[in-house]
Amino acid sequence: MTNAAVLFALLAQIALTLSLYPLLLKRKKAARAAGLVDEQRAPLDDDAWPAPVRQVNNCISNQFASPMLFYVLLLTLFITASVNLFTLVLAWAYVASRAAHAWVHVHSNYVPLRRNLFAGGLLMLIALAVQLFIALL
Question: What pLDDT, on a 0 to 100 scale, did the predictor assign at position 1?
C-alpha cells in the first residue's frame, strides 16, 4: 500500500460532487419546461425553484461543508506520510456515507436517514482527525 492510495478516495468524493451537477441541470430544465420557476426571482432566490431542484442544489451545497474537512485531513495525512490501512478504510467509508447521503437527499429526502448518514460520516471525520493528531505527536 502506498501513501498515495488515499488520494483515490479524495478523487471519488470530488467525482461525487461533480456528478450532482448534471442532475441539477436536468431538474432545472424540467422545472422551466413545466413553468414551475419564478423567473424574476430565480437568479437570486432558491425558493423560486420547485422542491426537486432545491433538493439537488442543497445536496451540492452539502458537498462543500464537511467534505472540506475530509480534503484537509486526507491531504495532511498524505503530506505527513501518515496514511495506513485504517486511513484508507475510514476514507472510503466516509465517501460511501456521503454517496448514500447524497442519494437520499436527491431522492426520498427522508431526513432521519439523512441525519444518520451524516452522523456516521462525521464520526469518520473525527476518527481521521484523531489519527492525524496521533501521527503528529
Answer: 65
